[in-house]
């Protein structure tokens, strides 16, 4: 049997054949009068009015409800650098999730360049076509600079979901896990395994929410002020975290820790988890292979979460990004602030708060209450 025939018979390939998106008209086009209003000559009047008064742009075009999902294909899921063409099915899927859960139209844009200057220039040039920019699967540390520059240049929301979507849902999950266990979240000793896009954002989000003792580890061990091999971003993290001056390996960092958040894709030994405090919280979020297998984590932990849909407590970004953009677009926000992200996390946590269990600290990704709740909270925080 050939590879082509195997793929033809595979239901996953069958679902993706021809892509997962289409464009549909919202205006009737059945009569000459319809055509005259939707296109020429009627459309010219609308275009002239917008040219004279740009404030009419959002009202009379689709930009107020459309987001660009932009990638260069360098950090796609757990696949790594697979390029813009390999990334397209993922970006199509992301756009479908935007529409399904947030009612937001989204267009996948896969750029055939990895140069930050070219990416920034391309997104800046096409920005008038969109109400928001969702950066996706762009490798660290370039993603930090690209997002910062676009946030400064554009007057529409820019959001790197690999960073902030993950951080929002992690904060929601940790709030509920500590509530369930009757613990003060701010007093927890937290270890972050991974100092890439998600690790940086999770660290800063938890710090913004009041967690004071955070230790971050990369593949070479604990980030601390004495290390001389750190990138500028990691050096900033080392200066902002690790108040007890921990050094050494991930096992050293985990000794006596209350919480592990794994966003690294690496493997953490069972002995390191065994060295944590009694009944810890373990979020092993690497997907498809968690840093600590849930069966192993459950030998020690009171609450376990993963990034996978086949285990309880999936930390899934779809809980965040559709509602975040829905709220930002509804509020006509020019950017997504820390206050809006914190509000999104609180809203997600609140949806699950009425029925907390060790295997239910966040809502299901399919829970229809989540995106509207997040949207309301984000719009309110946008002020």
Write a concise keyword list for the protein shown above.
six-stranded mixed β-sheet, single chain, Rossmann fold, 10 strands, alpha/beta, 383 residues, four-stranded parallel β-sheet
Explain what this protein looks like in three dimensions.
- The protein has 383 residues and is of the alpha/beta class.
- The chain has two domains: 17-160, Rossmann fold, CATH 3.40.50.10380; 161-319 and 336-383, 3-Layer(aba) Sandwich (Rossmann fold), CATH 3.40.50.
- Helices cover 45% and strands 11% of the residues.
- The chain has 17 helices and ten strands.
- Strands 7-6-5-8-9-10 form a six-stranded mixed sheet.
- Strand 9 (281-284), helix 14 and strand 10 form a beta-alpha-beta unit.
- Helix 7 packs parallel to helix 8 (142-153).
- The protein is elongated.
- The N and C termini lie far apart (60 Å).
- The mean pLDDT is 94.
Main beta sheet: strand number and arrangement? 6 strands, mixed
Structural class: alpha/beta
Domain count: 2
CATH fold name of the largest domain: Rossmann fold
The CATH class name of the largest domain reads Alpha Beta
How many H/I helical runs?
A: 17
Percentage of residues in DSSP E strands = 5-15%
Summarize the amount of helix as a percent range: 40-55%
Uncertain residue ranges: none
Number of DSSP-assigned strands: 10
| Biggest sheet, spatial arrangement of strands | 7-6-5-8-9-10
> How far apart are the first and last residues' alpha carbons, in Å?
60 Å
Shape: elongated
Write the element-wise H/E pattern from the N-terminal end onward: HHHHHEHEHEHEHEHEEHHEHEHEHHH
